[in-house]
Amino acid sequence: TLKMASDSPESLMTLCTDYCLRNLEGTLCYLLDNETLRLHPDIFLPSEICDKLVNEYVELVKTDSIFEPHESFFTLFSDPRSTRLARIHLREQIVQDQDLEAIRKQDLVELYLTNCEKLTAKSLQTLVSFSHTLISLSLFGCCNIFYEEENPGGCEDDCLVNPTRQVLVKDFTFEGFSRLRFLNLGRLIEGVNVETLLRPLASLAALDLSGIQLNDVGFLTQWKDSLVSLVLYNMDLSEEHIQVIAQLRKLRHLDISRDHLSSYYKFKLTRRVLNLFVENLVNLTSLDISGHTMLENCTIPSMEEKMGQTSIEPAKSSIAPFRGLKRPLQFLGLFETSLCRLMHIPAYKVSGDKNEEQVLNAIEAYTEHRPEITSRAINLLFDIARIERCSQLLRALQLVITALKCHKDDKNIQVTGSAALFYLTNSEYRMEQSVKLRRQVIQVVLNGMESYQEVTVQRNCCLTLCNFSIPEELEFQYRRVNELLLNILNQSRQDESIQRIAVHLCNALVCQVDNDHKEAVGKMGFVMTMLKLIQKKLADKTCDQVMEFSWSALWNITDETPDNCEMFLNYSGMKLFLECLKEFPEKQELHRNMLGLLGNVAEVKELRPQLMTSQFISVFSNLLESKADGIEVSYNACGVLSHIMFDGPEAWGICEPHREEVVKRMWAAIQSWDINSRRNINYRSFEPILRLLPQGISPVSQHWATWALYNLVSVYPDKYCPLLIKEGGIPLLKDMIKMASARQETKEMAR
């Protein structure tokens, strides 16, 4: 079912929402005075659509670098007569006081504000306008929402330095929030009196006080008949806390977990505390005690434990206090505790570090609000994916993608997540992944590359991209991925390994793509970037993979793309060619790549005059005798000269070497090649070769072209026979056989 779910197309609703948000002006809105978005007057949208527009907008701003946020977006929902909002989830820097203010007339039922650090006490006042309808509210991580700016009365010198001071608001309470049942105050700022704040709430069902230090929680008992969920993550507990919790008999979900790395905790968990929970909280279906140190041994002796297969029956529990449970728990959080490694754990879902299932449960449970725990869980998943085989691949991938999207600016998650993605997308898992899923991976990888100049993230992201079929799978983000790679290669201080992978990717991206793609990448500065890399390697007297890949990339990007060929010449490409030839006379692969590129330049009639110098022609002529890389270097040198000869004797503007002498050397070279040579070359089109057939001005060029075609169609008939027919090669060959000027051996080969 997971496979099918990941493969199914997006719903029409999702596609329309996405389209409208990317084209607000052309769909729902018009621009007032060229700057303010306004809804068309005849548009009326129900909450199902408006909620989705707002929540998708937040997601796009957060995860899609190309998407432009609109200053006046939230004002589109200011009038409940045309747009209705009910349930919205806002995150991080995207939302400011004026945005909430804009929607204050809406009857919100659910409002999640997560890590909205730009919200101040002005937004507390706006919350009051939702008080009569709000059922669910989260202010998790909104660390400034209880601060207001105070203007000092008398303007001292200090006034110039700091005109506004942040002052804690002490008098706000949830008075009047008569329907509020679910409240998350996680990571609330110190100094706010939680008891006073909450006292007016009549019947709370769920309360999250993550990361808040409260010495006295006795006030919680006022909701002992209604509270079903309580989260006290990272609160340092005491005996008093435990006694209060034991009185909340309606609890179904209790989370007293902690991050064992964050600070010193005096509290230690005991068998008695767990017994107390089991006896008093009879409705408990979910308990999280992750990160706790057990003061005493709560486990059943191992002899007794070993009996039979693993069981989730409470009676067989390896954790003694849980033998008192009436039924197995739905969820038990044991991450970073020794208990998760026991054999019989009475829960359907356990978070821990024992195996893949437990680790995935941990990532799933903690991603949204606990990145510090999630990054360690993803690190464990990374080890599983690297050393063993992942059995729940799709789930693992989805969870890592979600974590990377959710915590785009968290360095630890970006490092561990990008490393895990590399192993989760490699070839052994390829068959199980849908196009949609693989595209999601590419998106988060590119997000990571954009947000982080950090070496490890960049390297992991580049390596992960190497797991994809290039260019096909990256085509949908073609421009963006090229910009990011060129950006990496243009940095002044460079990590060798990243440079090598990035050049390899650049080369693969411009291989076998349409000419308009190549032209676009050329305009981004691709040619210049590769030449700079070559220049740097030359200065270091190093001919490594980066040098070879850079020339190969230039060979690919100039293929049938005259603009890029011209750029190569304008940026002193020929000077670098000669210097590389001189510095590295034995490097066969390098020579082949360089001459392949010059073959592309020579195909452009307007640029050929720039190759017509004694120095260049002598170099090309001498390379005709090269045995480097089989026939490739000799073949490419002959190709360059064939195009130059095709311009006729009058274009030969040099005294040395003589044209006839070069022609003679070309004939000798072609005759020395084995006609059955396997080739290290890839033609997308025969057009540049075919144009050398119907002419009598240079029989040797005609012969080189015929030899090239004969070799390719006889050694690789399946690939090249259809291409020759498709591009009209047969009639051209037939006509050439009738030409008086063609040499007999050329006609034989053509026949």
TrEMBL record:
Query: What name appears for this protein in its UniProt entry?
Result: Protein zer-1 homolog
The organism's place on the tree of life at top rank: Eukaryota
Assigned keywords, A-Z: Acetylation, Leucine-rich repeat, Repeat, Ubl conjugation pathway
Which Pfam family, just one, is annotated for this protein?
Answer: LRR_Zer-1
The similarity comment for this entry is: Belongs to the zyg-11 family.
Residue ranges of every copy of the Protein zer-1 homolog-like C-terminal domain listed in the record: 404-750
Q: Transmembrane region positions?
A: none
The record's section on InterPro entries has: ARM-like, ARM-type_fold, Armadillo, LRR_dom_sf, LRR_Zer-1, ZER1-like_C, Zyg-11_UBL_adapter
Q: Cellular component terms, GO, for this chain's entry?
A: Cul2-RING ubiquitin ligase complex
What is this protein's gene name? Zer1
Subunit structure comment from the entry: Interacts with the ELOC-ELOB/Elongin BC complex. Part of an E3 ubiquitin ligase complex including ZER1, CUL2 and Elongin BC.
* Stretches assigned to the Zer-1-like leucine-rich repeats region domain: 196-337
